[in-house]
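#onboarding

Welcome to the new folks! Below is a worked example of what a typical request in this channel looks like: someone posts a single protein sequence, and someone else replies with the predicted structure as tokens. Don't worry about understanding the tokens yet, we'll cover that in week two.

Example request:
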Amino acid sequence: MNIEVLKSKIHKVSVKEANLQYVGSITIDEALMIAANIIENEKVQIVNINNGERLETYVIKGKKNSGMICLNGPAARKVAVGDVIIIISYASIDFEEAKKFKPTIIFPDTSTNKLID
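Example response:
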């Protein structure tokens, strides 16, 4: 039996852009993606701390070390620039393996979206 577990989490980053005219997705700074073990095109859940909105979309790689977090397309209507969000990905793994699995969770600087040393 497989169950879904938390795989990766980027805890509290600020939305830098909201681009309604883009096709759709979330653009994430590549450095944050690497640190959180999230890959391009991976499905993620976005949780908006400011307004309680939750949505699912996929990831587009942003410029490394740019601090970019941009909600694109219809998702742009669920955020405002400056909102603080949490980005979560899940994995489906064997139940017994899940008991030992450790997710990757990062806590960037919310004002810059940069990794804290």
